[in-house]
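User: Can you predict the 3D structure for this chain?
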Amino acid sequence: MILWLQITSGRGPEECCWVVAKLSEHITHEAVSKGIKILPLEVIQGDKPKTFKSVLFALEGENAPLFVKQFEGTVQWVGKSMFRPHHKRKNWFVGVNILSPPVFTHWSENDFRIEAMRSSGPGGQHINKTETAIRIIHVPTGLSATAQEERSQYLNKKLALSRLSELLNQKEKSEKMKAETDRWTHHNSLERGNPKLVYEGNDFRLKNINN
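Assistant: Here is the predicted structure, written as structure tokens:
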């Protein structure tokens, strides 16, 4: 099972971007130690060295859902700013969100069902006695396309497949756009307070876990 995990500063200051970077390191180390595959898909750099505004990971493994659940929510870091020594604020928050990856279309011959039928004219009249019209159904998505313009079943099959391919491509683009929208929605919204995890100090020590 593949999951997406987003760590975001929520448009917070550079201190929050530093926390995103440190938390990314921590989660990567913990995932690897538990045999979970983890891959950074997107990293948005902060304005300071070794800081990230947002990081998007893909995680794969049997224990991945349980693993990411422990980080989901608001994470707090308690410490003095390393960028503004005289700044009084000591509590910094970042968000960790579990996202659904887009459904990418991996076509397999077994995913398609082809049905032959008689071509119909105006009013539903059959314009020939042989089954030259073709309907192709992509079983996993339920999408289908029909072609009956050509006189041969072979040509109608090619035409129907072309139409179905376009529908599948449109669906994939829609899934990608939805995933992109979800990511930016989470990036721009961050609940400050009631943290799931609390870290402290420049060595990023785990202080406590709130259930």
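The beta strands are 2-8, 37-45, 52-60, 73-78, 91-99, 112-117, 133-138, 143-147, 197-200, 205-209. The chain has two domains: 2-103+189-209, 109-174.
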